[in-house]
Fold this protein.
Amino acid sequence: MAFLNGMNISASGLTAQRARLDVIAENISNVNTTRTEGGEAYRRRMVVFEPRNEGSFQEIFSRTARGKYTGQQGVVVNEIIEDESPFKSVYDPTHPDADERGYVMMPNVDLLKETIDGMEASRAYDANVTAFNALKAMAIKGLEVGK
């Protein structure tokens, strides 16, 4: 049933965006973490998505058109990587992690950027919920035809 493929695609988007929101929340909660287990400031993390498909668009399209495609589609979280941008250096000689010159290395997390990324992920999540609900409504209407 084709509508189930659409539901699976939307569900994969929901899962991926939820993972992205989790990572964004972790970044925001560590915006002032100057020391991790590794001894340095917290590094911003980012989610890398990857399409979940088998073949090129043309191959999938032609197999689907012939009714012979049953593969998985959608998106998956490929990995969570660390942002290698430099830390922010802040002058605060009273901070326990300050160096001999009085500078503290702060995380490379930009609160504004994280907020915008969180809004984008939330909108993508909402869009997947809307698509899922539309597919569900179509399936229900299709079942009502048989009454």
Remarks:
- Strands lie at 45-51, 75-82, 88-91, 103-106.
- DSSP finds three helices and four strands in the chain.
- The mean pLDDT is 88.
